[in-house]
Write a structure and sequence with these properties.
Elements (H helix, E strand, L loop, with lengths): L11 H26 L3 H25 L11 H12 L3 H12 L11 H51 L5 H37 L19 H7 L4 H12 L8 H7 L27 H16 L4 H4 L4 H27 L3 H30 L1
Helix pairs in contact: 1-2, 1-3, 2-5, 3-4, 4-5, 4-12, 5-6, 5-10, 5-12, 5-13, 6-10, 7-8, 12-13
């Protein structure tokens, strides 16, 4: 229910805040509608419903403002940026950002917002989290390969190049070492991912119910069979398993066996109708993991794309401390980027994730650089 405006005249600061809230609500509604245009089915309906909910909040601020609505204000920068992303991409990244935006709602601490509005924002965050989770699930395999591959390439090759360079060898040797590290690491990542995914698919295949198992059900003896054990083995209680087995056999009498019916060949008497999902499905949905070749090629490319960055200064003929600094800066920017992407997709703070990625990468590279200096000093 929309609250009525306070009889006291609002202060200029209150008017500015309400107008900003109004602009933000309108912008968030546009984001949800832009996202809805790129979806179908239930996801589209959910996003449209969220836009309608933002419309209710808009009405609240319009009523409070009354004749003081003034000229339309611009939404805050983050919301405007989200609208651009939604219009251009409409991806899980936007949903992840919207999840963070809903979590930052100031309504819980603002007396001018109703308790229902604050509760709405919290629920909206959970709705968007669930929608984003669908997208995260769909890209989880590719995203894992991209982040791990690129990050491994960045950190391992930077550490290798800095460690070798610190020993005092020529830039040609450093370049050759970096290229060798790129190829060796990319090939290792690709081969490892191929074996990993192939093994995972084989394990999942071994756990998948026999698609032809349901064809044996009509031939079972109704009075003596182990169908209930199938459901018990899949986690059902004894009573639930027995009820499920009885339901599969349908209207057959407990004293009549399907195998006798078939042997007798009585006209007008048929064996129970059994659909594949009555026995084939165990209720578990495995994550889509893609093919082994897709995973191997993706890992190879992602690792190589990261590993080539520390080598770039040496490819352009730089050497010494200049090459080290430029390689470190380039890798640092890339690590900040991958960390921020992880933060966005996980719904966490992008800056914190980016700094964490940077600290881990530079920490590993610093260790090898110091070891290289020490090794070089012992050889001189």
């Amino acid at each position: 229910m929309i609250s009525t405006p306070s009889p006291a005249s609002p202060s200029p600061a209150e008017l500015r805040r309400w107008r900003q809230y109004l602009a933000d609500e309108r912008a968030e509604a546009r984001v949800y509608r832009e996202l809805a245009q790129r979806k179908t089915g239930s996801e589209r309906e959910i996003l449209d419903a969220l836009a309608d909910a933002e419309g209710r909040h808009e009405e609240h601020w319009l009523e409070l403002l009354g004749d003081d609505v003034g000229k339309p204000r611009r939404a805050d920068f983050r919301t405007r940026l989200l609208a651009v992303f939604a219009r251009r991409f409409g991806s899980v990244f936007v949903l992840a950002l919207m999840q963070r935006a809903e979590a930052r709602s100031p309504y819980e601490t603002d007396d001018d917002a109703t308790a229902a509005m604050a509760a709405d924002e919290r629920i909206h965050g959970e709705v968007v989290r669930s929608l984003a989770a669908r997208g995260r699930s769909r890209l989880s395999g590719t995203f894992r390969a991209a982040v791990f591959g690129a990050n491994d390439g960045l950190v391992s090759n930077l550490a290798l190049v800095l460690g070798i360079g610190a020993t005092g060898v020529s830039s040609t040797v450093v370049l050759a070492t970096g290229v060798a590290g790129l190829l060796a690491g990319a090939l290792s990542m690709g081969a490892g991912e191929f074996v990993s995914v192939r093994s995972q698919r084989e394990l999942l295949a071994a756990s998948t119910p026999d698609p032809d198992a349901h064809t044996a059900v009509p031939k079972l003896d109704v009075d003596a069979n182990e169908l209930a054990l199938v459901y018990r083995a899949r986690g059902m209680s004894s009573a639930d398993a027995a009820a499920k087995a009885a339901d599969v056999f349908g209207g057959l009498s407990t004293t009549t066996s399907a195998i006798r019916i078939q042997r007798a060949g009585d006209a007008g008497v048929t064996a129970p109708t059994v659909t594949p999902d009555s026995i084939d499905s165990d209720g578990d949905e495995h994550e889509e993991i893609g093919t082994a070749w897709q995973a191997a090629i993706s890992s190879f490319c992602f690792f190589a794309s990261g590993a080539v960055i520390p080598v770039l200064p040496y490819l352009f003929g730089l050497s010494g401390i200049v090459a080290v600094v430029i390689a470190s800066v380039l890798v640092g920017l890339a690590l900040l980027g991958t960390g921020a992407v992880v933060g966005l997709l996980s719904g966490g703070p992008p800056l914190r994730r980016a700094l964490r990625q940077l600290a881990i990468g530079f920490g590993a590279a610093a260790v090898t650089y110091v070891l290289g200096l020490a090794f070089g000093a012992t050889q001189s």
